[in-house]
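Subject: Disintegrin and metalloproteinase

B.,
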Amino acid sequence: MLTGVFLTADPETSLLQITVPRKIETNTDGEVSETHVTYAIKIDQKVYTLHLEKQSFLDPHFLVYAYNKSGTLYPDSSFIKGHCLYQGYAAEVPKSVVTLSTCSGLRGLLQLENVSYGIEPLESAAAYEHMLYQIKNNKTEFLPLQENYPTTQVVDQSYRILVKSE
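Prediction pasted inline below.
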């Protein structure tokens, strides 16, 4: 299901939308490959196809050491979760960048040309529902997110959500 419910937000923030991303199976031989994943997501009544490739910020040989109850140091791989960080693009938008974590739902940023969106799972939702919101940046000294652009900006935004029935 890709249909969304639109929610109104604080007048100075952007429109919110509830959406249900759909994972598209791209492998036809039956084997599951998590190196590349594809999702379909509806934003403002238009479906976008997100092509994502697994990325790693840790070396494949990275080790975490811990102490057991007797005080002995040992390598412990349980601290490293399954790798779930992806980067990619929206097929319908030539100048797009998508950076998502898929560890527990989709969480991250989508930049479709000069419009940026944040996405995060709704914790209490029974379905695979996600909150999608536009990130407004009125500061002209910052460039939009671009592939290989080293600067990160975090903006705190609060919302008042009013659900309208149609």
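Residues 1-13 have pLDDT under 50 and may be disordered.

T.
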